[in-house]
Amino acid sequence: MTRLGWCAIATAVLAAGGAVAVVFGGVYDVSATKEHVQPVYTVMETTMHASVRRHAAGVAVPPLGDPAQVAKGAACFRDHCVLCHGAPGVPQGAAGQGMQPLPGPLVDGARRWRPAELYWITRHGIKMSGMPAWEFRFDEAELWAVVAFLQQLPSLDAAAYGRLQANAGDCELDRPERRAPAHDRDPREQALMVLRQHACTGCHEIPGAVDSGPQVGPPLAGFGRRSAFAGAVPVTRENLVRWIRSPQSLRPGTAMPDLGVSDEHAGQMADYLLSLE
């Protein structure tokens, strides 16, 4: 074998050894008190920007800027975004201040992102950043209302932001009639995503879902073969939807929380679980 070949093998062995040390040796500090080194941060940021641009390219932007639309977006931003991003004259919450990577303020968001990209980020979230996918909490009108508000945010000082919020009303998420944004996912893929986005995989092992092996709640494999759940509740689609939406109504005192699941999403969850043979 040539010297070049041996050098290539040695390089591969060293790279593999380094990867093993990072993954299994605990070399990389994953604590939130140790920020990413600049090259890692730059690579992550560049990758994220390129991904958003590509995936948002086909998003059609509706008319934006109606005062009622902006007010609704301001309410949703105040109730669900300020905790991490802050606002003019309003600091981030303690959780947002301590996150890594840091969720920056959005007062310049409209300068850095096009409306279609802001919509895509708000709807789909960003993996491993703390940014959630609001598709499963906001309807289509609310998603675009947030974008419309973000378009106005750079022009607001603290006083103007305060006046807008004072008249913005509420952003009510727990509405049984709320319709999720349209999607083109397979029904099973959609159901699994709904289960993940409502944190079901944080407590239950669910076939088809990627998780870290939770052992808080019972595993749900073979759920469709069961005759009862939650003690002695008969397994029917109606009971399962009711359990998902309001566990305390079927079993007072249960540790299963009310997750604010809409009727639509509860039905998708129930259909998937009942299909598990």
UniProtKB/TrEMBL annotation:
An MF annotation (GO) of this entry: metal ion binding
Metal-binding keyword on record: yes
InterPro entries in UniProt: Cyt_c-like_dom, Cyt_c-like_dom_sf, Cytochrome_c550/c551-like
Residues annotated as domain Cytochrome c: 68-154, 183-277
SUPFAM superfamilies in the cross-refs: Cytochrome c
Key words of the record: Electron transport, Heme, Iron, Metal-binding, Transport
Top-level taxonomic group: Bacteria
Signal peptide: none
PANTHER family reported in the protein's UniProt record: CYTOCHROME C-553-LIKE
Protein name (Swiss-Prot/TrEMBL): Cytochrome c domain-containing protein
UniProt organism field: Piscinibacter gummiphilus
